[in-house]
Specification:
The protein is an alpha/beta fold. The protein folds into two domains: 32 residues, no CATH class; 192 residues, Carbonic anhydrase (Beta-carbonic Anhydrase, Chain A). Helix content is 41%, strand content 17%. Helix 1 crosses helix 2.
Length: 226
């Protein structure tokens, strides 16, 4: 058996010991249904597991993961499959979550792929179309930060994709209705992989501010957010 599979099975053994031997009451309750209060829309990146980052127990959060933690706009009747929109609808209209967090992160491969001028999408079946959701953000970053280092433009794009995602959430009528009635609250969080710091987007000031951790050099607003 390969070492990577052996590691997964060992991890499942630890899961059994923790949640079934030592905490069987939790899954006895979860057997009757889930009642998460928070939906997290996160990246598929293996380094950014929302449950691990927040030390959540099973049943605490409902999670949607996709390349670059994107939120498509409300477009019923178009195309054939709407995986993110379907999961969003289930979380908001069935589970009645009270918070939606879009969780982005630094060094996002999807964003870097989009900003790489040498990237050839000719062989892509799905990725190019999916990342096209970021095209308005990419254009803003290239307009406002044309001479900035590549790393700076990537970070701006990563953060502004969160802002765009929050705007796209409000195109769903049942999300907007819940937000306006203060039954649902939206959050944009950004995790810095190397610093281990979590930032939150403040819609009033249009700034990304340190939410938890220590970072002395970052608390500002990108012009592209305006």
């Amino acid at each position: 058996m390969e070492e990577c599979i052996r590691k997964l099975l060992h991890g499942f053994h630890n899961f059994q010991e923790t949640y079934f031997s030592g905490n069987s009451e939790l899954f006895a309750q979860l057997h009757h249904g889930q009642h998460p209060r928070v939906l997290v829309i996160a990246c598929s990146d293996s380094r950014v597991d929302p449950a691990l980052l927040t030390s959540c127990d099973p049943g605490d959060i409902f999670v949607i993961r996709n390349v670059a933690n994107l939120v498509p706009p409300y477009e019923p009747g178009t195309g054939h499959f709407h995986g993110v929109s379907a999961a969003l609808e289930y979380a908001v209209r069935v589970l009645k979550v009270e918070h939606i967090i879009i969780l982005g992160h630094s060094d996002c491969g999807g964003v870097r792929t989009l900003l790489d001028p040498g990237m050839d999408f000719s062989g892509s079946e799905f990725l190019k179309t999916w990342l096209s959701l970021l095209e308005p953000v990419r254009k803003k970053v290239e307009t406002y930060l044309p001479d900035a280092p590549h790393s700076t433009r990537c970070r701006a794009c990563e953060e502004m994709s969160l802002v765009q995602g929050l705007k796209n959430l409000l195109t769903f009528p049942w999300v907007r209705e819940a937000v306006e009635s203060r039954q649902l609250f939206l959050h944009g969080w950004y995790f810095h992989l190397t610093r281990g710091v979590l930032y939150s987007y403040n819609r009033s000031t249009r700034e990304f501010q340190v939410l938890t951790g220590h970072d002395q050099d970052y608390n500002h607003s990108w012009e592209v957010a305006k």
